[in-house]
Amino acid sequence: MKKEWLKTLLALLGIFVVLWLLRQFVFTPVIVKGDSMDPTLHDDERVIALLNFQVERFDIVTFPAPDEPGKNYIKRVIGLPGEVVEYQEDVLYVDGQAMEEPYLKEYKEALTDGLPLTLGPGHKTSFSFGKIPQGKILVMGDNRRISKDSRSIGFIEEATVAGDVKLIFWPPEDIGLINH
Question: Which listed residue, 7, 50, 118, 161, has the most CB atoms within 10 A of its CB?
Fold first, then answer.
């Protein structure tokens, strides 16, 4: 009887250690707060962010909020170090090349005020971020009209990116991979 109890305890301890190691080195759970990533992510959804990854354009990443200590933001990577990023009448241009942003289609189709979804400082319809410095990235929320992102908080240190959001695990009806 004692031998079985010890085996069970060791098995549970082994499972705990494996889960702890995965949490420390492979993934981290994150709670979405706010509506800045609608319609891709919703307030109070629980997501999994992978650790130790290469940042790529259109990844959804989590990072410490530069303007609110103790808080993290979740945003989409729009520009990478060394690139020139600009918007002209709601079209993203990276180094002069127009880029598709299909994840914004739902919001763009719902607009009725005649203005573009992506507005710059002073509600400009065309604006440029200029060249992104080395070691920095440009991030924006998908809900462009309300998102606090690189338009107001500036570029983000690439080294501070904590994880690449890949999977929604709560609520159950939303479980699945996030399409970039």
Answer: 118
